[in-house]
Amino acid sequence: MRVIVFDKTADKNWLVAWHQDKTISVSDKKEIDGWGPWTLKDGVHHVQPKLNVLEEMVTFRIHLDDANESNGCLKVIPKSHRLGILSKNEQDRVVAESEAYICSAKSGDLLVMRPHLLHSSSKGTEPNHRRIVHIEYSSFQLPIGLAWA
After folding, report:
1. Cross-strand bridge partners of residue 25
2. CATH top-level class for 2-21+59-138?
3. Computed over its alpha carbons, how large is the radius of gyration of the chain?
4. Largest CA distance in the chain
5. Average pLDDT over residues 89-107
6. I need a surface site. Which of 13, 47, 54, 88 has the fewest CB within 10 A?
7. Domain spans of the chain?
């Protein structure tokens, strides 16, 4: 349903705070009971669907380069997707009470996760290319009138 390419380098070395991916990109805006809020990002409609939609999604992250703590690899809170959609305060509490797992990977490795798994990444202390192909897949049939963007 969506593919994103990330490339963290010395010039583009960013921090991503702890969060859950809770929105999907769709072709049009349509009011659906229990879906929202809606946003528009780069001309594409995004909406937070009901939890059952996120539970049917999976994210595949294909590593094109080695990823480790020195170049800002992904960190996750294992099993946090089982807690459902969390408020910012709930996310902060879960992170404080949990041990983060560092997702080091070699070029060619594949990481599979649920989008609403709590995750983050730090700035690289020794940034170099950390390219990831991030593929979001869903078997969910969207309501009539909506299509994946």
Report:
1. 46
2. mainly beta
3. 16
4. 48
5. 98
6. 88
7. 2-21+59-138
